[in-house]
Amino acid sequence: MIEMALVVGLLAITLRTASPLLLASLGETIAERGGILNLGIEGAMLIGAFSGFLGAYFTGSLVVGFITAIIGGISTVLLFGILVIKVNLDQVVSGLAINLLATGLSLYFFRIAFSQGNFPYLGQLIDPTPIPGLSGIPIIGDILFNQTIFVYIGLLSVPLIYWILFKTSFGLRLRSIGEDPFVASYLGINVERTRFISLIVEGIFVGMAGGLLTISMFNTFDTRIVAARGFVAVSIVILGRWNPWGALAGSLLFGFTQALSLWIGTFLVGPAAPSISQLLSLLPYVVTLLALVVGGRKVRGPASLGSPFAKE
Amino acid sequence: MQLKISKSTYRSILKSLISVALALVVTSVLFILTGANPVLAYYYMFVGAFGNFSLTVETLVRMTPILLVSLGLAVSFKCKVWNIGAEGQLYMGAMVGTIAAVSLGNTPVTLLISIALCILAGMAWAGIPALMKTHLGINEVITTFLMNYVAIYFVQWLIAFPFRSPDTLFPESAQLPAAAILPILVPSTRLHLGVLIAIFLAIPLVYLLMMRSTFGYKLKAVGENPEAAKYGGINIKRTMLMALVISGALAGLAGFFEVSGIQFRMRGSLSPGYGYTGIVVALLGQNNPIGVAISSIFIAAIYNGAFEVSRVLNQPQGIVDFIQGVLIIFVLSSESIMRFLEKKGVIKL
How many structural domains are present in chain A? Predict the structure, then answer.
């Protein structure tokens, strides 16, 4: 039975480490379905993490932190949206600009808010909320129903976003823009407005994905806190073929890899243990790259993805 | 030799100057918000970068890795291959160069072999995402960025365990042998040979490669119109692959120069993000080697000047990243801004 408990623990951690990736990749799936490749997602997550931390720290309320994280995410993604939709700048380079800007802003204002050598942390974190009744179910209860609100939101959003993308007229409009904005525009679809709506939704998800890092996972802020999770999420979108269910599968794979490397680390004994456990920190990145080699070759995304749309 | 500046060159220079001016104005807002006088802030920034001889030398020392990285990135960006993995390529170059130098010890060829190997390591590390792009069609932005993390964590592991220094407490490599250390050119400064190599060898070589060779012509053709380039018989994949690998070579060299000119040991904190700074510099210099050279002095001055600003005006260091982020946005928008100004008749060329 001890082995069983260990496996249940591993799977529960998998969902937890997968949650930022799941939320971010769901958001990115929506944006990319409309033809917008947002590589500024890394920076938007960072601002989400930062604003969530500030909100929770200065009001002492995690609810406020949750909301400020979302506001931070939306603002950053909207700034990106203005650059690529209104000013019509290159999407890839604008994304990189957003990432640098986010690092600069958060580093700067973190030092304004907290003096050098001060390592602030929150009094409380968003901890797992067991769902009454369901969390008591053996095995499944511990894995699925004793999680944080972020895991629940992520899991419930998968069918919701699938439904929005593939069963609603908004989803149809968004996808047709993603395939060919010129044709969509010709057919009377408001390309700019639809894309902005998709980016606001992305901002909400990415803000949550970033916010959970500070107010639920690490209890502190550092400009390196996102650690490429945004780019891993973009990879997951490719591997998941721009489908929310694919994003779920991809996020679970990477959550599992990360959980596994932490898990193995705790079992190692002997003189080589610290060495191996440090080397394992490479695993999630290596697995992402390998997964791209295996599953990301010559996949076809939305046809207009990343290309500019200028109405003449 | 007569120096003739064409109208389009003049326009390009103006575009970069407008970007810089706007970025500095926006950054002023940040200073004002935190109660600092922006004019004073920029004054201290200038003083911190060029206030006296030794500060100026330090700015040149700071410029060297930025210059090498951004020259390489200019090659890659010219054909629209977005290598954002220079940071990782820099670390791998530095690490392999260090291992070579420490293993060889004091021999007459230690420095040369280490330099050759650091370049190869940078090339190899860039070659992986390059092949993934050309042969599997995987977006290089994602792969090069992820490989930064692989490189940095791998290097941190190498210097914490297999190649850890036997004589210090920190996770760092052993000290380089004397034969692997770049000579200092002016006593009691840190002006090392690498600075000269970057200025007098790297700039002309990249200039010749980009402006005077068929490869440079191919880069431009692939970047501007890949379809036409294909019809013109240019091997697009090969050109992109070469471009990415060349940028890796220069990043690798930048990394080892930091070890053998400045740190003398491989450390986990070798680069404060030169790989990302190089992106800003290459774009600000509009992928032109001369423009890149001037831009890298400018950015190096901001790096070093920011220390003075933070010391005197108590401003946080984040200002360096912030200026870069704002700058990159204005560089991207500069063509639109320029057209707007021309339409309004503010600028006449």
Answer: 1
Residue A291 belongs to what domain range?
2-117+134-295
CA B136 to chain centre: 28
> How many independent structural domains does chain B possess?
1
Q: How far apart are CA A258 and CA A252, in angstroms?
A: 10
Least Cα separation, residue B225 to chain A (angstroms): 14
Instruction: Looking at the complex, report in whole angstroms how far the Cα of residue B268 sits from the nearest Cα belonging to chain A.
Output: 14
* Cβ–Cβ gap B143/A109 under 8 Å: no
Report how many Cβ contacts below 8 Å link chain A to chain B.
136
Nearest to B280 by CA among A103, A233, A199, A206: A103
Provide the whole-model pTM.
0.93
In a domain? residue A127? no
Residue-number span of the structural domain to which B214 is assigned: 64-272
Gyration radius from chain A CA atoms: 20
The DSSP code sequence of B335-349 is: HHHHHHHHHTTSS--
Nearest to B322 among A90, A105, A234 (CB): A105
pLDDT per position as a tens digit, A199-248: 999 999 999 999 999 999 999 999 999 999 999 999 999 999 999 999 99
Q: What is the CATH number of the domain that holds A48?
A: 1.10.3470
Please state the ipTM of this predicted complex.
0.90
